[in-house]
Design goal:
There is one protein chain. It contains 19 helices and 15 strands. It is α/β, with parallel strands linked by helices and 510 residues long. It is globular, with a radius of gyration of 23 Å. About 1% of the residues have low confidence.
Length: 510
Amino acid sequence: MDRSVYLINPRENGPSYHGLEVFEAWKIARLVSLADLSTTTVAALVPSNWNVAICDERIQPVNFHAAASVIGITGKSSQRDRMIELAGEFRRRGKLVMIGGPYASLNPDDMRPHADILVTGEMEEIGETIFSDIAADRWQTEYAGTRPDLSRSPMPRWDLYPRGVATTAQVQTSRGCPFECEFCDVIQYLGRKQRWKDPEQVVKELDVLYKAGFRGVFFADDNFTVMRRRTRALLQRVAEWNAERRAGPMEFATQVSIDLARDSELLALCAKAGLTNVFIGIETPNEDSLSETLKRQNLRINLTEEVIKVVSAGVMVMSGGIVGFDHDGPDIFERQAAFIDSLPVPLVTLGVLVASASTPLYARMEREGRLVQHGNVAFGRYLTTNFRLKRISEAQLKNGMEWLLNHVYSPHAYGQRVKAFADICPARAGGVIAPPLFAGIESPLARRLAQYGKEELNLLRLFQQISLQRPDLRSHLRNVFIYYCQFRHTMEHNRIWNPRLSHQDAPMAA
């Protein structure tokens, strides 16, 4: 067989909190928030005597006339429909289609009919066998990956990736998470025993990305700080590496749990290394719901005070919030709104609890006969879920979520959280002062947002005022402004945005 492979990261089913589709929707540019790590990593596992090409469909159209004999498709749940479309089209054209990645690993029965070769799990230890079997035309229909030592994970092939479109690159320093949150599929896919890369392996990847022009990197870890000794060693090395960058330091973001707030020494090291943004799954102010879902690390603490500790160390927090636990009643929407209003956290991603395939939550809903949609879950639905809630009706869920989303992303509420963040975050010493706000790629977004009305104009003025008072926070302000526009676009696309709702009381019943 011809030794050539075309690796595709499909487009999403629609705009999401974490995308930058607003730039294209508002006819400004085509940008993506995160460069794709999956195709670049798989490309590095392809033997050197093969030809390999990468397509990130968020950036460039798929070439259905590609000469490659093997088509590799990866993706998450939000890419599921497009994965199937692409697989079908390439199989009709006589190509050998190989499907892998998170969704295929967690939903193999759903993907198996669409793939000639189905790959589940991690690929480092089986990649050589797969490509050797294909070259010899003796390939198997399924390959199951292992949980490898990450020292075996190769340098991703960033040389094959499109330049100048992704705002942030990715480096994965560890895999796995020791926690056991009932709704999370990470531990089903990557395990509870965390594995990590040596600090020198990480900075080698950073060197490549820095030379490629990236100045922002997302550490794509499931829980970056959970193993403290390892994290300290890595952050110390990253701090040393970052201090040596003559063209200015990199800024980093990652995912952590709220217990980071208890370690002031580690927080200081995060800030020193340039780790300026963290995502924390705060989920809910309802302690009974946290207990129900085994989110023990969020229990028996004041969540607002813990978040303030992180921000006070100079690290911006992005938070996740969930509605729909068994202990949530119709008052949860108002409780969530009041809780979020108390946080110095502009960026809050809100959604309804979903039972993803392969999770303990899915198994429990199946046992209890509460699933209303089996197998695949189409994410991006902010008002519905795939199982029957115990204490909230479908109508209450829809009306309550519409109200909550419009409240949290209203210009006034968003502006108050931006101001709270700026008031608490300490001055950043020694950092690069970014250009004035609304002088770069975000300026056409601002012009478009100003057309919406008086409240949006007031939000723009607040951003401008804080930018003048706190020039050290301009990179943060630029990001939270861009993502505000992205949130608004996502809500408009999903027909959720209704500014009148933000001025009404929370619906308690329907």
